[in-house]
Amino acid sequence: MSTALIVVDIQNDYFPNGKMELSNPDKAAANAVKVIDWFRQNNKDNIFHVQHIAGSPELGFFLPNTEGAEIYETVLPLEKENTIVKNFPNSFLKTDLESKLREKGVTKVVVVGMMTHMCIDATVRAAVDLGFEATLIEDACATRELSYQGKVVPAEQVHYSFVSALDGMYANITSTEEFLQQNN
Fold first, then answer.
1. What pTM does this model have?
2. 9 classed as catalytic
3. Which pLDDT value is given to residue 1?
4. Which of 119, 121, 139, 141 is catalytic?
5. E strands, 53-182, where?
6. Within 13 Å, how many C-alpha atoms sit on residue 76's CB side?
């Protein structure tokens, strides 16, 4: 069984001074780098970087041909690694991610990236719906606070609410350290 890493939307607009700044994106990116490095040493042909490009300017961030839409410098893909461009939260929707994974015989995916409550959630659920076994490295993900009718939900609560909703039924949830220990 083959395993692939999917690095979702670690892009400049999510970092300080970006158009959609997240809570603790640097910490999540640093953990994602550790997982990327592990895959580069052990499973180098199965790394898929996903880059969200806004389908319309109303999104307000990840606008085409802007610095904010570029992949963050610490996680830049190597030349031989796959880059998938998407226009929706779900990394599989209207992209060739599924076909590329199937071509390589992938049955399991490990997911890291941003935003936990949106693109990570959508991508993990879609992966499982398509028959892949999913692992989510939760501390290699970041999100932001949300609000609804004047009620503010802090970023940490948003993150853990979505992670706990995915745990078990959709994904094996683990930390960077646990993943590296289990796979060394």
1. 0.97
2. yes
3. 63
4. 119
5. 82-86, 106-114, 133-142, 146-148, 151-153, 172-174
6. 5
